[in-house]
Design a protein that fits this description.
Length: 822
C-alpha cells in the first residue's frame, strides 16, 4: 500500500545559471512541479510515494520520469501524450532568491491528464492524497483531479491541498478562486501562503483568515507559510506560530513543497487523527518542516534539492547550537529565540507568577511587538508559554500591565475573577502616517493561558499626545477605583476608572522634575514601608529612553513622595535625581501586581539591556534577557528615604556548592586568587578597606577577557570596568568604566555579586547601590582574583557559591507560540 499519492503538474524549471561571456543570461534545466516536489520530498524521507501526471513524448518528459524514478517515486501513474509538449517554466530570481515565473503551457502535456488515466484502485488504498490547484486550470486535467479527490475522500484517505496560485495560468482570478474553494471543501490539511490566504479571504490578519477557512470548510489543519519567518498553524484545539530557521537563501524554488512534504511525512509517521495532535507534537512537526523548507533554499533547483532526514536533523542541530551559544544565561530569564525587551504584565495569580514581555518572534531585532509569556511558581524557574498577544487591526502590542479583577469590576468575567491586561496599541494615523498610541484591554478566564481582546478597544485615546504609552494600573482602596499611571513624553499622567474600561484624567506629574535626558517610559507606582517605622511612602519609577548625547543611554530613575489618589507629590526638590541602577543594563523595570499581602514583598524585574546597543548585542538567534527579580525596600539614609533592592530569596535554591574564606590579608604583592570551574556564581564579600587604596575584584577568562568590579575609598566610588570584558566592539558605547557613590559602613563595604554567562549584577551594602551590566567574555570565566592598588585589604569573609542552571539541560526550549484571542 502506498503512503501517499500526489497528483498534478510535472514540468521543467529553467533556473538562472549566470551569464555567457557575451552577457546573455543562462538557464539550467531542473525537473520540478509542486506535486512532484512533494512526492520526492516524501520519498527522500522514506515514504512510499507515487505521482499521477502526464508529460509530453519528448526529451523533457523522459528526463522527468527518470528523475522521479531515481528519487524513489513510483512513476506508473505518469502517462504521456503527443498532443502537447512537456510544460516549461522559466524561473527569475531577485537578489534575495525570491522567484517570479514565465510559463510555456499553451497547452502543456500535464493539462491532458484524463479521468481514464487515474488509477482509482491505488487511490482507494493509499493513506494520503495531495493535490494543488494548477491541475484544475484546464480540462480534461481538472475533471481528472476532481475524480481522484472525490475517490480518495470516499475511501477515507487524508486529503492535502496546496493552492500554489500562479495567476498567469488561469483565465481569471475569479476562476482560480472558485476552483480553490472547491478544493477546500475536501481538504483535511491546507497549506497556504500568507498572500494566498489574503486573496482567498480578503483578510490580512493571518489568524482570523485561517480561522475563517477552518470553520467555513471544516479543515482539520490549516498551515500558513510565512517564508523565512516560519509558519502559523491552526487546529480546532490550539494554534500558534513556529519560527523559521535563518539561512542564506540562494533559490527559494521548491521551499514550500519541501516544507509540506516534511509535514505530511511527520503526519503519516505519527499515524493519528489530526485533531489528536498535541501542541508540542505540532511544534515538533513544524520545526522539522521549517528546517526542510529552509534547507532547500540553500541549493539551486527544486525537485533534486529535496532533503533527507539526516540533512534536516543536521540543520536543526546546527541551528540549536547557534541558538544556545555560550552567552545564553544560566539563571537570568531569556527568550526561547528571537528578540525580547521590556517586561510587561507582571502579575501573581493562583500560585503562579506571570511574566509577559515585548517580543518579536520573527527576528532578533526590535520589530512588530507581541507579548511573549512565561510562568513560574518561584520567580526563578520559568516555563515558556505560547505568545499571549499579537498585533491586530489596532496595531502592535506595546508595553502594559496585568491585574487580577477580583470583583469583576470590568464585567468581562462570569462567576469567578480573571486577569485583565491593559496595554498600548501602536500604529499610525491613516490620514498622516504619524505615530498613534492608544490604550486597550485583553482578558483571560483561564489563568492567563488564552487571551481575548476587548471588543471596545481602544479604551483610552489622547489624539494630541504623540508619546502616550505603557500603562501601569492598580486598585486604590482609598478612592475605591482603579488608577492608571501612564507616560506622555515628558511627564506622567494619572487616570481613574471604576471598571477598567472608562478612564478620566485625575492629575499630572513631572514636566520639570527629575531627569529629562530622554523620553519617559514604563512608569510604576506603589507604596512601601520605610524600614520598620510603620510609616510608608509612595515610589514612582520612570524609565528614560536613550539620548545620543548621554553616555549612559537608557536608564531608570525613581521618585519618593505621596499619592493622594489623583496625582503624585514629590518629597524632594525638582532637580533631585535618584537612579534605580547605576549599571548600563537595567531598563523598563516594573513590579508584580497582586502578590499576596502575607508575602509582603514588592518584586521588580527589568530588561537587561540598553537602547544604545540593544539591537547589536552578539547573541545570535536570540537577543535580550531580564535582570534577576528583586525585592524592593525603603530605608532612611543620609539624603532622606531611598530605595534598596536585593535579589529575591528564592535564588538561594540554585546554590549547588560553596567555598568560604575569612580573615584574608591582601596586599598588592599578595593578591587573592582562586581558580573556578563553574561559570554561574554568587559571590559575597565583606571587605575592610580602612587601610587600603583602591580594591578590585577581577573576573577573568583564559582568553584575557576580564571584568573588573572595584571600589575607590578616596572617591567612595563603586564601579564596573567592562572595557576588556570580552567581545565589546559591536558598539562604541559598550566598552566602558562606570559606577556610583557608595559610603562605607565603619570602614567596610559589602558586595554581593551574581555572575552569569552574559551578565554581572553587583549589589553594594545590602542593595543601597546596584550596578547591572551585560558582558560577553570570549571564553568562560575561570579565575577570580582580589587585589589592592596600595596599602592592604582585609577580606573579612568571602563566600563563593556555584549555582545550578535554571534549564533542565543546556539544550534550551524552542518557542511555543499560540494564540486564542478574539
Amino acid at each position: 500500500m502506498l503512503d501517499a499519492i500526489t497528483i498534478g503538474e510535472l514540468l521543467i524549471d529553467f533556473t538562472p545559471a549566470g551569464h555567457t561571456e557575451g552577457g546573455n543570461e543562462q538557464f539550467e534545466c531542473n525537473p520540478g512541479g509542486a506535486p512532484a516536489n512533494v512526492a520526492v520530498a516524501l520519498a527522500r524521507l522514506g515514504a512510499k510515494t507515487a505521482l499521477i501526471s502526464k508529460v509530453g513524448q519528448d526529451r523533457f518528459g523522459s528526463l522527468l520520469r527518470n528523475t522521479l524514478l531515481s528519487s524513489g517515486v513510483d512513476v506508473s501513474g505518469i502517462s504521456s501524450t503527443n498532443e502537447a509538449n512537456t510544460t516549461l517554466a522559466f524561473v527569475h530570481l531577485n537578489k534575495d532568491g525570491d522567484r517570479s515565473f514565465s510559463f510555456y503551457r499553451k497547452p502543456g502535456a500535464d493539462t491532458f491528464l484524463c479521468p481514464q488515466d487515474i488509477p482509482l484502485d491505488r487511490i482507494e488504498s493509499c493513506r494520503l492524497l495531495h493535490f494543488g490547484s494548477l491541475s484544475m486550470t484546464h480540462e480534461p486535467a481538472s475533471s481528472a483531479t476532481r475524480a481522484a479527490i472525490i475517490k480518495a475522500k470516499e475511501a477515507g484517505a487524508l486529503i492535502s491541498f496546496d493552492p500554489n496560485i500562479r495567476f498567469a495560468l488561469w483565465e481569471t482570478k475569479q476562476a482560480a478562486k472558485e476552483s480553490i474553494l472547491w478544493g477546500m471543501k475536501y481538504a483535511d490539511i491546507l497549506k497556504i501562503s500568507e498572500e494566498e490566504l489574503s486573496f482567498i479571504t480578503d483578510l490580512t490578519d493571518i489568524e482570523k483568515g485561517a480561522q475563517e477557512l477552518q470553520q467555513q470548510y471544516g479543515i482539520a489543519l490549516v498551515v500558513v507559510t510565512l517564508a523565512e519567518k516560519g509558519c502559523y498553524y491552526r487546529l480546532t484545539a490550539h494554534d500558534g506560530y513556529v519560527p523559521g530557521l535563518p539561512v542564506k537563501a540562494i533559490d527559494t524554488t521548491g521551499a514550500g513543497d519541501a516544507f509540506l512534504g516534511c509535514l505530511l511525512f511527520k503526519v503519516l509517521e505519527y499515524g493519528i487523527s489530526l485533531n489528536q495532535f498535541t501542541q508540542q507534537q505540532m511544534i515538533d512537526m513544524l520545526r522539522f518542516a521549517n528546517a526542510g523548507g529552509a534547507f532547500v533554499t540553500t541549493r539551486k533547483g527544486a525537485l533534486q534539492s529535496m532533503p533527507t532526514t539526516d540533512e534536516i536533523n543536521k540543520m536543526m542541530d546546527s541551528y540549536k547550537q547557534l541558538n544556545n551559544d555560550g552567552w545564553r544565561p544560566g539563571y537570568h530569564f531569556s527568550p526561547p529565540s528571537h528578540w525580547l525587551n521590556d517586561p510587561n504584565g507582571l502579575v501573581y495569580y493562583e500560585g503562579e507568577y506571570h511574566l509577559f514581555y515585548q517580543y518579536h518572534p520573527f527576528s532578533n531585532k526590535w520589530g512588530p511587538m507581541h507579548w511573549g509569556h512565561a510562568i513560574s511558581q518561584d520567580l526563578i524557574h520559568w516555563q515558556h508559554e505560547p505568545i499571549a498577544l499579537f498585533p491586530d487591526e489596532h496595531g502592535a502590542i506595546f508595553s502594559g500591565c496585568c491585574v487580577v479583577d477580583w470583583n469583576n469590576s470590568s464585567g468581562l468575567f462570569v462567576g469567578s475573577p480573571g486577569l485583565v491586561a491593559i496595554f498600548t496599541h501602536a500604529d499610525t494615523y491613516p490620514e498622516t502616517g504619524q505615530p498613534r498610541q492608544r490604550q486597550s484591554l485583553a482578558y483571560s478566564s483561564d489563568k492567563g493561558r488564552t487571551w481575548h481582546k476587548y471588543e471596545g478597544n481602544p479604551v483610552l485615546s489622547e489624539p494630541d499626545l504623540v508619546d502616550f504609552r505603557d500603562p501601569k494600573v492598580f486598585w486604590h482602596p482609598e478612592s475605591k477605583r482603579w488608577v492608571m499611571a501612564i507616560v506622555a513624553g515628558d511627564h506622567v499622567r494619572f487616570y481613574g476608572s471604576e471598571n477598567l474600561r472608562e478612564w478620566s484624567l485625575t492629575g499630572e506629574f513631572g514636566h520639570r522634575e527629575g531627569s529629562h535626558d530622554g523620553v519617559w517610559e514604563c512608569p510604576d507606582l506603589f507604596e512601601l514601608s520605610i524600614d520598620d517605622t510603620g510609616r510608608t511612602k509612595w515610589v514612582l519609577v520612570i524609565s528614560i529612553g536613550d539620548n545620543p548625547s548621554c553616555p549612559e543611554g537608557s536608564r531608570t530613575q525613581y521618585f519618593i513622595g505621596e499619592f493622594d489618589g489623583n496625582t503624585f507629590i514629590n518629597d524632594n526638590s525638582a532637580d533631585h535625581i535618584m537612579w534605580l541602577d547605576y549599571g548600563r543594563d537595567n531598563y523598563a523595570g516594573v513590579t508584580w501586581s497582586d502578590i499576596p499581602e502575607q508575602d509582603g514583598r514588592r518584586v521588580m524585574m527589568g530588561w537587561m539591556s540598553n537602547w544604545k546597543y540593544a539591537n547589536e548585542t552578539p547573541t545570535g538567534s536570540w537577543r535580550g534577557s531580564m535582570t534577576l527579580p528583586r525585592t524592593l525596600s525603603l530605608t532612611k539614609w543620609d539624603e532622606g528615604v531611598v530605595l534598596t533592592q536585593m535579589p529575591v530569596r528564592e535564588i538561594e535554591q540554585l546554590r549547588n556548592s560553596s567555598m568560604s574564606w575569612s580573615d584574608v590579608l591582601i596586599k598588592p604583592e599578595i593578591p587573592f586568587s582562586h581558580k573556578i570551574s563553574d561559570n554561574l556564581l554568587e559571590i559575597e564579600a565583606d571587605i575592610d578597606i580602612s587601610s587600603s587604596g583602591e580594591v578590585y575584584i577581577i573576573l577573568k577568562s583564559s582568553e584575557d577577557s576580564e571584568t573588573v568590579i572595584g571600589y575607590d575609598p578616596v572617591r567612595q566610588w563603586l564601579y564596573i570596568d567592562r572595557s576588556k570584558s570580552g567581545l565589546t566592539d559591536f558598539h562604541s558605547s559598550f566598552p566602558c568604566h562606570h559606577g556610583a557613590s557608595m559610603i562605607p559602613d565603619n570602614g567596610k563595604i559589602k558586595l554581593h555579586i551574581w555572575l552569569d554567562r552574559n551578565a554581572v549584577e553587583v549589589y553594594g551594602n545590602k542593595g543601597l547601590v546596584v550596578l547591572t551590566d551585560q558582558i560577553f567574555p570570549k571564553s568562560s570565566i575561570d579565575m577570580i582574583s582580589i587585589n589592592a592598588r596600595s596599602g592592604q585589604v582585609l577580606l573579612n569573609s568571602l563566600h563563593i557559591y556555584a549555582l545550578q542552571s535554571i534549564h533542565h539541560s543546556e539544550t534550551k526550549p524552542e518557542q511555543l507560540s499560540r494564540r486564542r484571542d478574539g
